[in-house]
């Protein structure tokens, strides 16, 4: 029983209000993106989507997926993946542009 | 003295049979491969959009922005309920954790229902790859709809898989195999579900908000 208690305590117990706060932020950011693309179509709407979409993904990864509270190794693994994605994107676009 | 030995023995057994960090690392590695699967298709989208920007713009105009946004709100909410399920489990409320998983499955079903209505409406208006009507439109619009069905379809498949795993997790919770002390499977299930959410967050502007 004592062992069980210590296992539970070793985990980061994140308060519920943080999750609710992140959820509210995600809802508001989604509505802002949708509003911008509906009422300001064109460059402004796209710019808002390009800025807000990564913020939303970051919130889910950091808080809902606990990346902020895990060991640093997970974050580095994630950054390596994003790096690979960036290389794919860059090489494809360079090929497309200068072909 | 004898109590100490028993305590030590329990500790040793735990470390032999379980490696939660390893399980989570494996899950994250799998999620990265999933991400790259979608990135490949998104790259195809980016290149074709650069080629046919006008046609993509026209084709996206036929999609229902409201359904896309509502589905985002639905999926984000399901992410909240599954993270609460995990938090309840960590705090020892096993029953409530199971209830929140049921709620998440319900919200996931709502997402799929919306998706079904959306696809049904599009297909009944002849917007599907290879349809006679799409063939009369410029090439780029047909490509847009091919990518739309591939990406949202692949995503919907992931939603179905996530919900199926949740059902297994609920069964294991009721069998006492997942407990507040041993819940890495629930945690990995939640990670998978959140990734499905992240992918949808990326798909939303690509297809619905391109006007």
Description:
The complex is a heterodimer of chains A (99) and B (211). Chain A has 99 residues and is mainly α. Chain A folds into two domains: 2-68; 71-99. Chain A has four helices and no strands. The longest helix of chain A is centred in the C-terminal third of the chain and has 27 residues, at 72-98. Chain A is flat and about 50 Å long. The N and C termini of chain A lie far apart (66 Å). Mean pLDDT of chain A is 88; it is low at 1-9. Chain B is mainly alpha-helical. Chain B has a single domain (20-207), classed as Cytochrome c oxidase, subunit III, four-helix bundle (Four Helix Bundle (Hemerythrin (Met), subunit A), Up-down Bundle), CATH 1.20.120. Chain B is built from eight helices and no strands. Chain B has helices spanning 2-17, 20-51, 53-60, 65-90, 94-124, 132-136, 139-174, 184-207. Chain B is elongated and about 60 Å long. Classes of the chains: A mainly alpha (99), B mainly alpha (211). Chains A and B meet through helix 1, helix 2, helix 3 and helix 4 of A and helix 1, helix 2, helix 4 and helix 8 of B.
Largest interface: A-B, 47 and 48 residues
**In CATH, what is the class of chain B?**
Mainly Alpha
Relative helix content of chain B = over 70%
Mean pLDDT level of chain B:
91
Oligomer status? heterodimer
Structural class of chain B: mainly alpha
Mean pLDDT of chain A: 88
Number of strands of chain B: 0
> What does the overall shape of chain A look like?
flat
Compute the number of helices of chain B.
8
**Helix share, percent of chain A:** over 70%
Count of distinct structural domains of chain A = 2
Rg estimate of chain A, integer Å: 19 Å
Largest sheet of chain A: none
CATH topology term of chain B: Four Helix Bundle (Hemerythrin (Met), subunit A)
Total beta strand runs of chain A: 0
By DSSP (H or I, 4+ residues per run), the number of helices of chain A equals 4
CATH architecture of chain B: Up-down Bundle
- Our estimate of the beta-strand percent of chain B is under 5%
């Amino acid at each position: 029983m004592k062992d069980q208690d210590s296992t539970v305590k070793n985990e980061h117990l994140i308060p519920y209000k943080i999750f609710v706060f992140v959820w509210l932020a995600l809802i508001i950011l989604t509505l802002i993106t949708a509003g911008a693309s509906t009422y300001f179509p064109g460059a402004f709407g796209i710019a808002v989507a390009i800025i807000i979409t990564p913020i939303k993904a970051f919130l889910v990864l950091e808080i809902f997926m606990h990346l902020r509270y895990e060991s640093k190794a997970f974050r580095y693994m994630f950054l390596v993946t994003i790096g690979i994605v960036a290389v794919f994107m860059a090489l494809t676009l360079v090929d497309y542009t200068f072909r | 003295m004898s109590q100490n030995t028993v305590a030590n023995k329990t500790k040793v057994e735990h470390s032999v049979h379980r490696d939660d960090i390893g399980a989570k690392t494996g899950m994250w590695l799998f999620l990265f491969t999933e991400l790259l699967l979608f990135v490949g298709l998104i790259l195809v989208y980016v290149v074709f959009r650069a080629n046919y920007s006008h046609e993509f713009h026209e084709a996206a105009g036929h999609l229902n922005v409201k359904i896309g946004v509502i589905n985002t709100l639905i999926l984000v909410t399901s992410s909240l309920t599954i993270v609460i399920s995990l938090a309840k489990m960590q705090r020892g409320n096993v029953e409530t954790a199971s209830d929140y998983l049921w709620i998440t499955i319900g919200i996931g079903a709502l997402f799929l229902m919306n998706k079904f209505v959306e696809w049904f409406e599009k297909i009944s208006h002849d917007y599907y790859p290879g349809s006679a009507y799409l063939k009369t439109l410029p090439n780029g619009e047909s490509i847009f709809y091919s990518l739309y069905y591939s990406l949202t379809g692949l995503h919907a498949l992931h939603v179905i898989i996530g919900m199926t795993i949740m059902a297994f997790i609920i069964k294991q919770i009721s069998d006492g195999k997942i407990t507040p002390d041993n819940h890495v499977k629930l945690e990995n299930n939640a990670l998978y579900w959140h990734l499905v959410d992240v992918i949808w967050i990326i798909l939303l502007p690509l297809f619905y908000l391109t006007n």
